[in-house]
Write a structure and sequence with these properties.
single chain
Length: about 200
């Protein structure tokens, strides 16, 4: 067995172990990869005026390499895709509950979980953090406009954005998760009621 195959097997075993223990990827260090786009943009832009989010990066494309914005958002979307795939895999491996087995096919059940996770991550990891950092950096730029120290004027908005990043999961995860759970619980109830109605009609 090659070294690469050994590493692949170990990785698969670890993923299976996490899935069996129902470990949430948002409880691991991988969670912060979703914010890598913001961090990497800030660190790679150097002494030039910093493009901290994709919106800022697009606005300052003449002074910030476009590949940085593209690569950073690529990291975040790769994380999101991986997280959704892991959640779907974990759900499939765990199997359906009695209610799920009675009303949903396996593709529908796993698909619902994947869509729910994608919605959560898109809002909690991408949209709201991007808006928050974008707004914070913009407001900080205004606050640092009249600062005479050139270095502070340049880096002040960036450090303002960076200071917020560690708190993003604590700010958004719980409310977004709660809202997402309620919406999808409502959808699942409607689907179950629709299934029961069809069963009564057919009988």
């Amino acid at each position: 067995m090659s070294h690469r195959e050994t590493l692949t097997d170990k990785a698969q075993d670890e993923i299976s172990s996490l899935a069996d223990r129902n470990v949430d990827s948002t409880d691991t260090d991988l969670r912060y990869m979703a914010y890598g786009a913001r961090l990497r943009t800030a660190l790679r832009a150097g002494t030039r005026y910093i493009a901290y989010t994709s919106d800022i990066g697009e606005a300052f494309r003449p002074v910030v390499p476009p590949t940085i914005v593209t690569a950073c958002y690529g990291i975040s979307w790769l994380y999101l895709a991986g997280d959704v795939s892991y959640e779907a895999y974990k759900t499939h491996r765990r199997g359906p509950s009695q209610i799920e087995a009675a009303h949903f096919s396996e593709p529908t059940r796993v698909g619902m979980v994947a869509v729910k996770r994608a919605v959560f991550q898109s809002i909690a990891s991408m949209a709201l953090p991007a808006f928050t950092i974008h707004t914070a950096v913009n407001q900080a730029k205004k606050a640092f406009t009249n600062v005479q120290n050139k270095r502070l004027k340049t880096w002040g908005p960036t450090f303002t954005g960076l200071a917020i990043v560690p708190f993003l999961p604590y700010i958004f995860d719980h409310p977004v998760e709660t809202a997402t759970d309620k919406v999808f619980e409502w959808i699942e109830k409607r689907l179950i009621e629709s299934q029961k109605s069809r069963d009564r009609t057919e009988s």
